[in-house]
Amino acid sequence: MPLRQAAGRDAPEGPLQRKKKRHTLKAIAVTTLHRQILFLFCFFAGSIHDYTLMKKVFNPKLKWFHRVGLWLDLGFQGAGKDYGSKSKINLPHKRPRKSKNNPKPKLTAAQVKHNRKQAGTRVSVEHAIGGMKTFHCLTHRIRNHLDAMIEYLFWIPAGLWNLKIA
Questions:
Q1: How far apart (Å, rounded) are the C-alpha atoms in residues 23 and 67?
Q2: Cβ atoms within 10 A of the Cβ of 93, count?
Q3: How many angstroms separate the CA atoms of 45 and 24, rounded?
Q4: How many CB atoms lie within 10 A of CB 8?
Q5: Model confidence over 98-150: pLDDT tens digits?
Q6: Annotated domain spans of the chain
Q7: Among 6, 36, 48, which Cα is nearest to 159's?
Q8: For residues 37 and 132, is the Cβ–Cβ distance under 8 A?
Q9: Which of 40, 56, 74, 90, CA to CA, is 20 to 30 A from 48?
Q10: Separation CA 34–CA 80 (nearest Å)
Q11: Average pLDDT score over residue span 79-98
């Protein structure tokens, strides 16, 4: 039985099961290709777009990413335009929208190959974040009322992860 069911006229009869909401935190993580965490900052409560969070941390008017290779996912669409042409920002190709002229949009074989190569590069970031979660203070519910402690609950696992892989 699925956790979430549709509501309305076409909904199945019986109790409606819903997923319990959580107060989530979002942060920006900058890592190396060797899974070392270089930068962990900007803890926001609730839902916020990845690119909006990036613009708050890294002002687009400053030269943050000149002469540095940066691999981002599609949550950062528009970063190449805002951070300048001298930045080496790599974004995956987005599938075109469905329309009357293009009823079954697909990426070309070269674009799929490029996306897979780029995903292989970005996976080290996911491994670094997963490595931080092995210390379990980020995976369990935080019962804390001090805002200053939240930052330490992110920084301590990041430091321990860097120590572990060093």
A1: 37
A2: 14
A3: 6
A4: 5
A5: 888 888 889 999 999 999 999 988 898 889 989 988 888 777 777 777 777 87
A6: 1-6+17-48+106-166
A7: 36
A8: yes
A9: 90
A10: 24
A11: 85
